[in-house]
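Quick question, first post here. What does this chain look like in 3D?
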Amino acid sequence: MSDEALIAGYLSGDTSALAVLWTRYDGLVYGIARSVTRRHEVAEDIRQEVFITLMGAIDALECHAKFAAWLRTVTYNACRSWLRGHHPSVGLGDLDERHIPSTDPAAEAIENAETHTALRRAVDRLDLDYREVVELYYYEGYPVADVAEMLDMTETTVKWRLHKARESLRRLQTLYM
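> Answer (accepted):
Ran it through. Tokens below.
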């Protein structure tokens, strides 16, 4: 059943339709919240907050076909609200290992995994404004136009934030690799 049909069903009084929608997107909401906050218990709280928002605001959603993008936006906004009250401190100690080139395929695979892990940790340390566009563009594969719509900003802003994020990651690489 499509999101549109489920929303129409819920708005017509079928509460089970909302449960189906929530089950469909629960992992996405939790994943975004966990990625932004880096804390399981906070991600759980944000998940509940988003569900409550969903129940109270779904009737205001004008284009039911854009439900997933709207839900992402609601989730990122809830994460931003949480971050405004909390300033997590993160060290860069995990990025100081040097990688030694190898011709051994097994060692190369390990090195690639370590590089991926180090890059993921570096992305996690970016400011939220940069991290969220990197996550949506590079990790989730959304085009710039979709990222701009989800985050309610212009495409130019998304491109600028991707540019600044890449600069920050290059600086971290220079400092710690």
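Residues 87-104 have pLDDT under 50 and may be disordered.
The first helix runs from residue 3 to 11.
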